[in-house]
Design a protein that fits this description.
nine-stranded mixed sheet, 3 helices, elongated, five-stranded mixed sheet, single chain
Length: about 425
């Protein structure tokens, strides 16, 4: 008898401990008994963490199914946060968050009941900001000289979650990470904001390896934000120049090699790790034996600089400009079939960045990177007119003073008048 009680005692204690551990769940999901039928609480979307971008909208729907619909009750509750707009009906409640701000982030609790049974589900609404606002420095790398490059993501929130950075960076050569680049620890700094919302900028620095005899036309900084149920990336090209005075980097004539944000290299395209630098120049006489490609030439023009994109191809093709620093609207453009001109005033203050044109049909592209020279400000018409007026005033004052000086010098002689005639004897 004593031996049997010794076996039953540990079993009884284990059941008692298990019952205490599951008490919370039992309280939330206890059976109805006489309440009118059992139910289950459903939330849509079902994830525990729901991410929504700043300015975006999100709906959270909570439902409970009861054997007796009249006994069903559902409501949303917020914990120290703005709840949002709520519309409730029989057995369901919809919480709507519109034009979400960072202050709208927080825990939402759905409480449902069927008679005497109560159910509860929590959802974390995570509001994030990750705009396509990447800046790099240096703006253009010089092969064999620059050894460091930085990339900064602006207006980021949240910058950290669960003691981990939410934004990571990669330095890409084509679609692969640049081998040999040494990444430093990311730097986190709060952006200056007038409101209550806190946004951050995250900066990543790399020490670069030698870029080789024939450097790639461009590297790319990629910033990626990872949140529960969300992964988003942005890219920013970093042009690579042959020398500090180079104004014509390698021309990238394929759409896959063009340094545009989010660009990728498709199978069969040239490997970006082994590019051959080329400069725009006249097309050889045997151009028919190779793929027709556009080329960019630059030449001085009256009062500025003019770029010409042309393609020596068969009739029926056309070229057009597709990219320029500051937008194409800031330039004068003319297009005539296989030739397209782009003019910019005052070449001594050229903008910095990529100029690109494309061939249609075919989609081949040519690119030209311009490095700005020292800008010498051009006097405006108002300044020129003012200078002329001032010069005329000075000339008038000088003339008046000379005239007055000469008059004082010759005054006594002229006032004596002619000699008197002798009178009659």
């Amino acid at each position: 008898m004593e031996w049997g009680l010794g076996l039953l005692l540990p079993l009884f204690l284990g059941l008692l401990r298990r019952g205490r551990g599951e008490g919370g769940e039992l309280r939330e999901r206890r059976s109805l008994g006489r309440g009118g039928g059992s139910g289950a609480l459903e939330v849509e979307p079902p994830e525990l963490v729901v991410a929504v971008e700043v300015g975006g909208s999100q709906q959270l729907t909570c439902r409970v199914a009861c054997a007796d619909p009249a006994a069903a009750s559902v409501q949303w509750r917020g914990l120290d946060t703005s709840l949002g707009a709520v519309q409730s009906g029989a057995g369901s409640s919809v919480l709507s968050v519109r034009n979400a701000s960072l202050a709208a982030a927080g825990i939402r609790v759905c409480v449902g009941s069927c008679g005497n049974s109560t159910f509860q589900r929590t959802v974390e609404l995570l509001v994030f900001s990750f705009l396509d606002q990447l800046t790099v420095s240096r703006v253009a790398l010089v092969a064999g000289r620059d050894q460091e490059v930085t990339c900064t993501a602006h207006n980021v929130s949240p910058a950290r979650r669960d003691d981990q950075n939410t934004v990571s960076f990669s330095l890409l050569l084509g679609d692969r990470e640049l081998e040999g680049a040494q990444a430093q620890d990311p730097e986190l700094e709060e952006e200056s904001q007038d409101g209550e919302d806190s946004l951050f900028q995250v900066t990543q620095r790399w020490l670069l390896p030698p870029l080789g005899t024939f450097p790639p036309p461009a590297l790319q900084c990629q910033a990626t934000m990872r949140l529960p149920g969300l992964e988003r990336s942005h890219r920013q090209p970093i042009p690579v120049l042959h020398s500090l005075t180079s104004r014509e980097p390698p021309v990238m004539t394929s759409p896959e090699a063009t340094p545009q944000q989010g660009s990728t290299r498709s199978p069969g395209s040239p490997d970006p790790t082994s590019p051959r630098p080329t400069s725009p120049g006249p097309t050889s006489g045997n151009s028919s034996a190779r793929t027709c490609r556009p080329e960019i030439h630059q030449s001085p023009a009256p009062g500025g600089l003019e770029l010409l994109c042309e393609a020596a191809c068969s009739p029926g093709v056309a070229v057009r400009w597709i990219q320029a620093p500051g937008g194409l609207e800031a330039y004068d453009r003319r297009e005539a079939g296989a030739q397209a001109w782009l003019s910019m005033p005052w070449a001594e203050c050229t903008p910095e960045g990529w100029f690109q044109c494309r061939l249609d049909p075919g989609g081949q592209m040519a690119s030209l990177y311009l490095v700005p020279q020292i800008c010498s400000p051009v006097p405006s018409a108002t300044v020129w007119t003012g200078s002329v007026v001032l010069a005329l005033l000075l000339l008038a004052v000088l003339t008046y003073r000379l005239w007055k000086c000469c008059r004082q010098t010759t005054g006594p002689t002229s006032s004596s008048g002619p000699p008197a005639l002798p009178g009659p004897d």
